[in-house]
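Protocol step 4 of 5: obtain the predicted structure for the target chain.
Materials: sequence only (see below). No template structures provided, no constraints applied. The aim of this step is simply to have a reference model before the mutagenesis design in step 5. Sequence pasted as it appears in the construct record:
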Amino acid sequence: MILGVYWYFKFPNDLYDFKFFKFYPGYGGHADNPAELAARVQVENTDDFIGKLTALKERFKKTYLHLNINENQLIINIGDYQLFDFHFQMAEEIEELLIRERAELLDSSIPFTIQSSKSYAPESEEFKNIEHRFIQMVGSDFRKSNAENYAARIDCNLPLQYKQSLINDLAQIGKEENLNVFYYNDFDCKDHSNLMLFFTNGRQKKESVQKVDINSFGSKVRQLTQKYPLHFGHFGSFKEYPLRGPHVELMVEEEYILNKK
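Step 4 output (structure tokens):
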């Protein structure tokens, strides 16, 4: 599983600038469509260009790439429900290839007859269900450059006297499980504490994509219930909801993850 900074609803302003590719946002909800980067171009030698594109794709094993072909015209599409930095980096490298090939940008309003198609699937990974029901996978509001963040959230409560020791152990688990970001909200009431914990990562670039085994992480968190009188979920009513924070324990690229205004 990949956690961290991604784009779906809006383009990453100030980070990328494309000549050929256009960003098509996801809509979410019932539409449930992937966000896409698409380019409609004309090249001199279609077979030669596709061969070079295939070689380029080998360096981006986690991305999906689709081509619609009409003689020497192509529609190049990169799409997913979370566009990480490595998706945009692949588009940048395709643009460099298009420039070297002296490709021509075509008007998307001109009719296009698909004669053939070619798809390049991302590297397959074994699908794993999340075994631990106390883990919620959540998105975020918009941050710097329209970034969103995909994170694991855990709600829990325990006696106040154990809170700091628990936080220290959770930070250590984060480091062990390839998670570079850990922050939390809390509400302390007399001798008890409600906690809302968030674990995630920063921007995912092609040379440093971080895989997280969410079930290994969850197992280590569950083991803490043997060490502390820890319960999942929150106690009390909405008045005790943990809104105080965020308190940062581990952090990278904070401006893309938190909004402290």
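Step 4 remarks: The radius of gyration is 22 Å. The first helix runs from residue 46 to 57.
Proceed to step 5.
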